[in-house]
Amino acid sequence: MNLNRANSFQLDWLVVLIYLALVMFGYFNIVSAATDGAFSSYFDLSAPYGKQTVFIGLSLISIVLILSIDAKFYERFASIIYLLSLAALAGLFLFGKKVNGALSWYEIGGATLQPSEFAKFATALAVAKYVSDLQTNIKNSKDQLQAVLIVAVPAILILLQNDAGSTLVFAGLIFVFYREGIPQKYILFGTTVLVIAVATLKFSALIVTSVLAACLLIYQLLLKRKKKKISGPLLVLILCSGLSFGTEWSFDNVLQKHQQDRIELWLRLEKDPEKLRIMRRNISYNLNESEKAIRSGGFTGKGFKEGTRTKGKFVPEQHTDYIFSTVAEEWGFLGSSTVVILFVVLIGRILFLAERHKSQFSRAYGYGVASIIFVHFLINIGMVMGLVPTIGIPLPFFSYGGSGLLAFTILIFIFLKLDANRLNVW
Length: 426
Known about the structure:
Elements: H1 2-8, H2 13-34, H3 48-68, H4 72-76, H5 78-95, E1 97-99, E2 102-108, E3 111-113, H6 115-131, H7 141-160, H8 164-169, H9 174-179, H10 184-203, H11 205-223, H12 231-253, H13 257-267, H14 273-281, H15 285-296, H16 308-311, H17 323-355, H18 360-384, H19 402-420
Helix pairs in contact: 2-3, 2-17, 3-19, 5-6, 5-7, 6-7, 6-18, 6-19, 10-11, 10-12, 11-12, 15-17, 17-18, 18-19
């Protein structure tokens, strides 16, 4: 029996190779972006790339530990891992260190740890555990509410720490629920809310409400439903109008000034040239410099450590959230496309592996892994290119940071452990 189990352990080497390629490519871009003056050593712990060397070493150790633990452990103790992550998030309000306005860090002997990064894989485990429970029927409203609470609790704790970027990542777990059978109406509802909110900010609540009312009138006239009750469509109009005016009020009274400015720049709401010039110099300085660095890379790039805007430190904190601009400048369109393709193949491969699982827990967790990586990838690259509002969120395996690299490594290799043992009888 043990021999059969050993023979059935089949690690997916394609995912492993893509992981290693992303980590190493990201590392050399951190070296380039973080080099200040003369380069000393890859093990210089006073420099970000020296610390990243240590983080990579710790990540490799964590891989060995994850693969050495029995696969059943992750399902059996998913709830405990989740509760520990909530305790770590709550503890920040008492013992946390504020960095760049976010209370998201523990300082331990000069090193810092960001619990929100680890809460992502812990929540993915908890969601997979819950939806795979025999007593759970995700099509029931009660079970749906409990599933949403599992995701909402860590998300709210992180939001209260003023880390909106990490909070958004948890929304990606909706793909897990969708795969496991929640009604499509929730996806339709979420899409509708997003479209109305963006349209309101772009045009105004009054215009959006007027357009919706006109659509309702045309709907009634064209389909000739005068004899039928109009109460249903009218209720939808009232709710959508309330959402529209609520979005407008929230934008003016809830969001902070810098958040309003970022959305205004993204949707191109500001028309005053002088005000735009001031905003670009301040609130969107990073984005403008990032776009210049991307454009300067051309098709093949300027070469490793040869990016003029990277060497000149024009993009602040380029080795963290804006690391993709270094890729584009020094490796050009070819290098950038390679990174995008690697991420797309990675996400697609994880989904493929998840679908072949007979274990619902493994499948749901696989979808959670793919969702979390996808949201990070989409928002980070979109932010760097100005396609989405500026949101502080790292690029998986690329951006500098020990917590992020360790958490993403744990996230993906727990799934690989589950996948490697898929042929075992549970």
